[in-house]
Specification:
This protein has about 250 residues and is an alpha+beta fold. Helix content is about 25%, strand content about 30%. A seven-stranded mixed sheet has the order 1-2-3-7-6-5-4, with helices on both faces. It has a five-stranded antiparallel sheet with strand order 11-10-9-8-12, with no helix packed on it. β5 and β6 form a beta hairpin. It starts with a strand and ends with a strand. The protein binds biotin.
């Protein structure tokens, strides 16, 4: 099968490179990797600080699934990232953990951010999975604490990290692709199990920032559709999108 790889010293945004390549009919699957980004994008229209020293990688896939199933790829990628980082560092839950929807944390600090984008052209769906992995830099962020891989293993190079992640991603993706043809909910079932085994903070107090305010409760897990389940003490709230925080114990 084989993946193409475009590795650049510097670019605006590897997600933008992949979206642009999709419009130009590029061959897929293809990884776009850069050592530095000038216009890295984060979730909810935020900026992703992208100094040299960290890994910026986006994968362009053509028709991997229906649009309804696309968010499942975020969970697939999270599982693959967790497994690769566990192999590279020896860390595991609860120190290394997934946080809903798509982050990887080390000791409660953000190590990886993931941004999924999609584009429909006629009957074709292009999905871009973009990952920013802090390897040897910890960009200051006023919103949350940040970690880097060199705190866990200072010998890791960017290519060690990319090799382990791309291999692990290919493995988890093939497992998920074996369920093609089943309904979206049926396909999500095994992915949900794998994700929950790697998730941090289950049963802990948490808060979620939503556009219309903040809600507090205890983090129970994710439902059959990947929505966050928060026990507010006044019923269980299901949340489609938002930022989850665990207060420092
Ligand atoms: C987040 O807000 O947590 C998601 C951050 C995703 C950043 C990555 S870096 C590689 C790819 N290119 C981008 O412009 N963004 C993603």
């Amino acid at each position: 099968k084989g993946y193409r790889l475009v590795w650049q010293a510097e670019t605006g945004s590897t997600n933008e490179d992949a979206m642009q390549a999709a419009r130009e009919g590029a061959e897929t699957p293809c990884w776009y990797v850069a050592r530095q980004q000038q216009a890295g994008r984060g979730r909810h229209g935020r900026q992703w600080l992208s100094p040299a020293g960290n890994l910026y990688a986006s994968l362009l896939l053509k028709n991997p699934c229906s649009m309804v199933e696309a968010p499942q790829l975020g969970f697939v990628t999270g599982i693959a990232l967790y497994d690769a980082l566990k192999t590279l560092t020896g860390a595991q839950v609860p120190d290394l953990a997934l946080k809903w929807p798509n982050d990887v944390l080390f000791n409660g600090q953000k190590l990886v951010g993931l941004l999924l984008e999609s584009q429909c052209m006629g009957d074709q769906v292009h999905i871009v999975i973009g990952c920013g992995i802090n390897v040897s830099h910890r960009p200051d962020n006023p919103q949350y604490p940040v970690a880097m891989l060199h705190d866990l293993n200072p010998d890791l190079s960017l290519s060690d990290v990319f090799s382990a992640f791309s291999l692990s991603f290919d493995h988890v993706l093939s497992v998920w692709q074996e369920t093609r043809g089943l309904s979206a909910i049926e396909r999500f079932h095994p992915i949900r199990e794998l994700w929950l085994e790697r998730a941090g903070g289950i049963g802990k107090s948490a808060s979620v920032n939503l556009p219309n305010g903040k809600i507090n409760g205890s983090f129970i897990g994710i439902d059959a559709l990947g929505r966050l389940e928060l026990d507010t003490g006044n019923g269980i709230k299901l949340i489609d999108a938002g930022d989850l925080f665990f207060p420092k114990a």
